[in-house]
């Protein structure tokens, strides 16, 4: 294969992987919002947090007729993030923090660090192995968590930025094309799989608890979860 063609295919793989990550978070947000609004429709007496009450839902979506329960809520929620990308930890926290207890958000320090137990975990994610972490004193473990989360976030900032460089400046952020290698791309795709799979597991585990905490009945919870 011509080297230039192979390099562009690798860049394409990188961009597709980050695009899929973006799509996951956008769809996950739309899914959680729509299920919550569907639950409110079934139990109008339950009070929703102000953030949900103040959502600016597109009128056109709400006027569409549909025989599918909750579909209008999903389309309305999807349009809320349709024109944005979800490619920063700050934005991910902004969208999903509301579904978790305070100081225990989706990308909070302790939650993210627990992902070290994942089968997909590699040292490059936190710049420390599990054995190295366990060997530290409690004080040093606390410091390690903070430092590791910073490392983890910086890694994904770099991954997301490279996609931006490819799309907007032909992978030439400083006039010279950046080099790209297949092993590097493989690792970045694996990193995205690590982030998405763990976030999906956390959201799947947490959302039924979120509905329960709001006060919805088990019947309503089961109906919107199916």
Account of the protein in words:
By secondary structure, this protein is an all-alpha fold. The protein has one domain. It has helices at residues 3-42, 50-53, 59-63, 71-81, 89-96, 109-113, 123-126, 130-134, 138-169, 182-214, 218-225. Helix 1 (3-42) crosses helix 4 (71-81), helix 1 (3-42) runs parallel beside helix 10 and helix 1 runs antiparallel to helix 11. It is globular. The N and C termini lie far apart (48 Å). The model has no long low-confidence stretch (mean pLDDT 89).
Keywords:
single chain, 226 residues, mainly alpha, 11 helices, 0% strand
The helix-strand sequence is HHHHHHHHHHH
Low-confidence parts, pLDDT < 50 over ≥5 residues?
Answer: none
* Helix content estimate: 55-70%
Mean of residue pLDDT values:
89
Determine the structural class based on helices, strands and strand pairing.
mainly alpha
The Rg value, from CA coordinates, equals: 20 Å
Number of strands: 0
Could you give a short account of the major beta sheet?
none
List the topology elements.
Blueprint: H1 3-42, H2 50-53, H3 59-63, H4 71-81, H5 89-96, H6 109-113, H7 123-126, H8 130-134, H9 138-169, H10 182-214, H11 218-225
Helix pairs in contact: 1-4, 1-9, 1-10, 1-11
In brief:
With 226 residues, the protein is mostly helical. The chain has helices at 3-42, 50-53, 59-63, 71-81, 89-96, 109-113, 123-126, 130-134, 138-169, 182-214, 218-225.
């Amino acid at each position: 294969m011509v080297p230039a063609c192979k390099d562009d295919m690798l860049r394409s793989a990188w961009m597709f992987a980050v695009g899929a990550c973006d799509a996951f978070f956008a769809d996950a947000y739309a899914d959680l919002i729509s299920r919550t609004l569907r639950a409110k429709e079934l139990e109008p007496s339950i009070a929703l947090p102000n953030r949900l009450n103040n959502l600016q839902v597109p009128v056109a979506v709400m006027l569409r007729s549909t025989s599918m329960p909750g579909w209008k809520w999903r389309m309305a929620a999807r349009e809320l993030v349709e024109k944005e990308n979800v490619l920063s930890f700050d934005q991910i926290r902004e969208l999903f923090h509301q579904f978790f207890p305070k100081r225990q958000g989706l990308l909070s320090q302790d939650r993210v660090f627990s992902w070290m137990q994942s089968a997909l975990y590699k040292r490059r994610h936190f710049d420390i192995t599990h054995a190295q972490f366990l060997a530290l004193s409690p004080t040093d473990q606390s410091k390690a968590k903070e430092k590791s989360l910073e490392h983890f976030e910086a890694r994904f900032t770099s991954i997301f930025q490279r996609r931006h460089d490819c799309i907007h400046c032909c992978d030439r952020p400083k006039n010279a094309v950046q080099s790209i290698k297949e092993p590097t791309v493989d690792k970045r795709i694996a990193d995205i799989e690590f982030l998405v799979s763990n976030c999906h597991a956390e959201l799947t585990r947490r959302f039924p608890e979120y509905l329960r905490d709001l006060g919805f009945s088990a019947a309503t919870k089961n109906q919107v979860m199916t």
